[in-house]
From TrEMBL:
UniProt-listed Gene3D superfamilies: Vaccinia Virus protein VP39
Protein name listed in UniProt: Phospholipid N-methyltransferase
Coiled coil: none
Source organism of the structure: Amycolatopsis viridis
InterPro entries linked: Methyltransf_25, SAM-dependent_MTases_sf
């Protein structure tokens, strides 16, 4: 399934015109603690680039649950990765699908979401993350100045004890960076 085709079908739901690069995937999973996690959740896995990077780091016995709102992409991901749990649904209902997680990784297009949707999804992430849990998501460099992107960064800072940002991943189209956050006790 082409991410470009899905973007053209519904640009408000699929925020990327091209699949994320392996370099961005490596930056997303670096330092997020997937290698120590018992339960990892991926929001908006799309074509599975981050899924592959997570699977390469998961310890034996760890569970990966992917939540994808697009039924075509969810079906493709489930067929290509029968060893993970793929849920066709909205990240706004995360706590209904997964009671607890050590790590949440997100490929969601935060800068496209209105404030209320950003808040609902962040509330769900906060509800399921265990103490010491970690969250990673990315943003495109060219969109970092948009009001929705700045609002999202402020929301992260209000909710998490630690918030950081990676260096720019120039080997992605378009260039992007990773937001990292952690629940502190």
């Amino acid at each position: 399934m082409s991410i470009t085709r899905e973007f053209l079908r519904n640009p408000g739901c699929t925020g990327a015109i091209a699949a994320s690069s392996r370099r961005l995937a490596a930056a997303m999973v670096a330092g997020v603690g997937a290698d120590r996690a018992a339960r990892v959740v991926e929001l908006g896995p799309g074509t599975g680039v981050f899924t592959e990077a997570l699977l390469a780091r998961l310890r034996p016995g760890a569970r990966l649950t992917a939540i994808e709102v697009n039924p075509r992409l969810a079906g493709d991901l489930a067929r290509s990765h029968p060893d993970i749990e793929v849920i066709t649904g909205s990240a706004e209902r995360l706590a209904e699908y997964v009671p607890a997680a050590d790590v949440v990784v997100s490929g969601l297009p935060w800068a496209l979401f209105p404030r209320e949707r950003q808040e609902r999804i962040l509330d769900q992430i906060g509800e399921v993350l265990a103490p010491g849990g970690r969250f990673a998501t990315f943003a495109y460099l060219h969109a970092a100045w948009l009001p929705a992107a700045r609002r999202f960064e402020a929301a992260l800072a209000r909710r998490f004890g630690f918030v950081g940002r990676s260096r720019v991943v120039w080997g992605n189209l378009p260039p992007a960076f990773v937001h990292r956050a952690a629940v502190t006790s």
